[in-house]
Design a protein that fits this description.
The structure is a single chain. The chain has 209 residues and is an alpha/beta fold. It has eleven helices and four strands.
Length: 209
């Protein structure tokens, strides 16, 4: 990192070198070598606030580089090329490293070390963000605070009230685009009918400006 690097570039570089979940863990240490994945941006007007990388993302170092990412991009109405343009999107998960699997083979929750240590300093250096896509309950709890409802379904169902609330950046709560949530989408048809057109409209307006 050169002497002319911005504070945001320096912080992102520190995050990519982070090993606190291995060296100073809260609970069990990370079961593999850390590989933090983050896309910080000084220009993007949209922040994708996800959960934590999955195994494929851990292996490739590219966020949402899996079937979940394909579904998320479809929800947003953007191409893969646009999604990975840091001038258009910042991508900051709640946990930067793949947390491993639980006993049933599902991904564990985001590591608890990441957000308290890194998230607010990173957000402070991206004041240009106008729209936060809060993907999953962990991201919703952090970004919405007391406005987060008791369950993910209740939070996403309240999307219009949340989106219209006065904040420095508007927030749209989304379920995780995992294919494990296909049943949830079928039980809640209002998500695709009512929320997705607004999501696509708001994303399109900000990446075309």
């Amino acid at each position: 990192m050169g002497d002319d690097a911005s504070p945001l570039e320096c912080l992102a570089a520190q995050i990519r070198r982070c090993t606190i979940c291995r060296d100073e863990p809260i609970g069990r240490p990370l079961p593999h070598e850390p590989r933090p994945v983050v896309v910080a941006s000084a220009n993007a007007r949209i922040l994708v606030a996800g959960q934590a990388p999955g195994l494929r993302v851990h292996e490739t170092g590219l966020p949402f580089n899996d079937r979940s990412g394909d579904r998320l991009r479809d929800w947003m109405g953007v191409s893969r090329e646009a999604f990975y343009d840091p001038a258009l999107f910042a991508i900051v998960p709640m946990g930067f490293c793949f947390p491993g699997y639980d006993a049933k083979g599902g991904d564990l929750p985001p590591r608890r070390e990441c957000a308290p240590h890194w998230r607010q300093p990173l957000m402070n250096l991206m004041p240009q963000i106008e729209l936060v896509l809060a993907v999953g309950q962990h991201a919703q709890k952090w970004h919405l605070g007391r406005d987060c409802r008791a369950t993910l379904t209740q939070t996403v169902a309240a999307w219009r009230e949340i989106f219209e609330a006065p904040r420095p950046a508007r927030i749209l709560p989304l379920p995780h685009p995992s294919w494990r949530n296909t049943g949830w989408l079928k039980r809640n048809p209002w998500f695709e009918r009512d929320l997705l057109p607004v999501l696509r409209r708001e994303v399109a307006a900000r990446i075309s400006a």
